[in-house]
Amino acid sequence: MSNEPKPVTVLDLVRMKREGRRIVMLTAYDALFASLVDEAGVDVVLVGDSLNTVLCGEETTLSATLDQMIYHGSIVRAGVRRALVAVDMPFLSYQVSIEDAKRNAGRVLKETGVQAVKLEGGANMAPTVRALVEIGIPVIGHLGFTPQSMHALGGYRVQGRGEDAVKRLVADAKALEDAGAFSIVLELMPSEVARRITEAVSIPTIGIGSGPQCDGQVLVLHDMLGLNPGFEPKFLKRYAELADSVKQAVSAFGADVREGRYPDESHSYDE
Ligand code: KIV
Hints:
The protein has helices at 10-18, 31-39, 51-54, 66-79, 98-112, 126-134, 163-179, 191-200, 221-224, 242-258; strands at 23-27, 44-47, 84-88, 116-118, 139-144, 183-187, 205-208, 216-219. By secondary structure, the chain is an alpha/beta fold. The chain folds into 2 domains: 10-240, TIM Barrel (Alpha-Beta Barrel), CATH 3.20.20; 242-271, no CATH class. Strands 1-2-3-4-5-6-7-8 form an 8-stranded parallel β-barrel, surrounded by 7 helices. The protein is globular. 3-methyl-2-oxobutanoic acid binds next to loops.
């Protein structure tokens, strides 16, 4: 019998919601981290356009390009054996026309080998989601704080405050489900709002900064590993402090080199 794990599918994730099993999603941007999170058992690896801020030092996700997402999608895919891999559609790759969205999301699946794309927006994006699903492209929606609309939303802030806003979010979630999305990321909203959305749809919701009642949770890997110590929102739990470890290791290496302690005989080759 093969040792290859059974890959997670879109249907598995929908079944997990029905069976009350929580879904674990993390971002990864390269094959090495992707293989580590996959071996640690995450269900979904997201190649988020957050890579533009986390890896590239940009202020927002807005300048991420389709080629960038395809490159990172393909190297993440190379590192994963079990998890479902999804790639974020970057800003302007799907908003201008449905034809653009089909061509660009099609390129993502074709050129990376990942199983799904994620795009931001609610009822306004439902026709686009339907068109992608109709040509066989699985789609994850994204509601609440949608980073590509950061300027229109007035910055990084909690969404869904007030009954009108809540009703709009619930309607958006239902529109995405009706259009064929198989899951929805809920970012930065009160727990009660995420609970109402989660109960209103039969597809799984994956929360980030949206409380414990979602069907799953996602974090940006570099944030939860403490590699990005300047980013400290209330919702973030750090499971390691790798920035400190990296700095300590690098300064120990520097001191060893400067003092002539490295390399010693044990790290050197005989003739
Ligand atoms: O880009 C990203 O990493 C995301 C997650 C925060 C959900 O969209």
